[in-house]
Amino acid sequence: MAENSADLSGSEREQRIAELKAKMQASAKKNKAQAEAPAKAAQEVKAAAGAAVVVADAPAVVVTGEPTPAAVSAAHAKSNGAATNGATMAAELAQTTTLAAPEPVFVEDSPEVKARKEMTRREFMTYAWGGALGLLALQGAAGLFFFMMPRFKAGEFGGVFFIGPESAMPATDAPPEANVAGKFWLVNTTDEGIKALYMVCTHLGCLYKWEQANFRFECPCHGSKFTREGYYIEGPAPRSLDTFLVTVENGEVAVDTGKKTLGSPSSESPARAVPV
Ligand code: FES
């Protein structure tokens, strides 16, 4: 330790006081510099990080214009030692953040994105169901079309029979003429014109016959009887004879065996033998 001040002379004491003042000023300046060092270092880090973002062109860098809190804390920790250069830290930090490969990050879809994906799935199911229903409807329409198409050619039972000119039809008092292929009896009547009577009995489906002696149709199965015009007379048949549609096209008589009309009920027959 220095000598006792009491032993010093006047000039030596003044010199000693000056030295002490200089030391105190130097110490105060050093303390002030140390106190300002963290803030200065932080400014340098921020500037360097911003510059790093501008220079770096890697698309996966996560750094923004603001340094991360972790980076700032690290820089502060270094600067507290008062021996670390803030610019060096900033350069290291910038290099680290620029060159470091970004970790693969799983980003969960936002509710909007989820809703959009869900909507897409729903739309797909809607289109799938719509397509299936469309195919089903198309199949049904095709089946209906083929069902409605005429399945019989002209001259085949179920189709149209052209039986000659109107002027060549049998007389109104002539016996009926059998058309075996068309399964009908052709008669010409005074009141109803030309009629085509279906050859099948309306009772249980037997083939009735024309009995010229009685001038009427008679069924051999259960005895039902019908007039020349096809009206019910007697027997178990529930109705008069069924008829096919007869038309005249360009003077030609046509019988459509695909269009049958059921006979009227036997109770309504004008030729009924036994009154109801
Ligand atoms: Fe003709 Fe019975 S089938 S009367």
Tell me the radius of gyration: 59 Å
Give the overall pLDDT as a whole number.
Answer: 79
Bound molecules: FE2/S2 (inorganic) cluster
* End-to-end distance: 158 Å
As for the number of domains, it is: 2
Which class of secondary structure composition applies to the elements?
Answer: alpha+beta
> What is the overall silhouette?
rod-shaped
* CATH top level label of the largest domain: Mainly Beta
Secondary structure: number of strands: 10
Biggest beta sheet summary: 6 strands, antiparallel
Q: What is the correct CATH architecture of the largest domain?
A: 3-layer Sandwich
Q: What is the name of the CATH topology of the largest domain?
A: Rieske Iron-sulfur Protein
SSE succession: HHHHEEEEEEEEEE
Strand and helix map with partners:
Elements: H1 10-55, H2 69-79, H3 86-99, H4 111-148, E1 160-165, E2 177-179, E3 184-189, E4 193-198, E5 209-211, E6 216-218, E7 225-226, E8 232-234, E9 243-249, E10 252-261
Antiparallel strand pairs: 1-10, 2-3, 3-4, 4-9, 5-6, 6-7, 7-8, 9-10
Helix pairs in contact: 1-2, 1-3, 2-3
